[in-house]
User: Fold this.
Amino acid sequence: MYRLLYFIRKTYVAIIFIVLEIVAIRAYAYSTPYTQSRLLAFSNSVFGGVYKAFGDVSYYFSLRKENVRLTARIAELENRLDICREMLPVQTDSVAEMMHQYEYIAAGVIANSINHPQNFITIDKGINNGVRTEMAVLSPEGYVVGYVVNCSDNFAVAMTLLNTDMRTSGRLATDGNSGLVRWQGGDSAVADFDEVSKYADIKEGDMVVTTGFSHYFPEGLTIGSIESFSLNASQTTYKARVRLAADIARLRNVVLVNNTAADEVRDLESKPKPAWGAE
Assistant:
């Protein structure tokens, strides 16, 4: 006890100074919206750098496995490209325009959450790298992960499928019947696939892919596979459980996809619709 009192007596001036500094900084931070935004931007920059440093260390130890997986992905894409070249010996202007509708940016994951109702990932690319909000986020294998919801100059945050606020349309790859994919908490590897027509030819193991209805995801991207299914209480639609293809909990790298036609489509959809029979 004597030593504690002696220590406090020797350092009380420094302790009081530190406490007053903390109080002053806190008062300054909440004094105006401008100071709040400036401090928030500064903290995001600092923590972004810290997350990136830790992410780089973790990434270093997984490079071998990552390189093997990316090499396999490149080989798969090269094979698909060869098939496309055989099917389209002469490329028309319309085909060329369609092939350039999507732009791709590789990025690293520096922070990730999976244990909350609303989960996000932080990415080491931002506005300076061509990233913008509403870009699709895919795993290196091309599986659906989520989409970008916020950007700074050098970093971005994406909402993942493991977020109770996210909804995306999906369809059965076998017969084309569509439904709604959403995660309602719990197992980070499984989501719900609801509102599927009772006339759908659904089976365990069927692949669920994107419909292309949203402005985020190109059509035909893999979301997951049917694990189980049953008719709802009214016997009108199927409710299925989908095992997600992307292992979101272990993401280290992602691919961002920009739909260059999205702004044009949104602009067209926002315009007033002509009334039927109007002259």
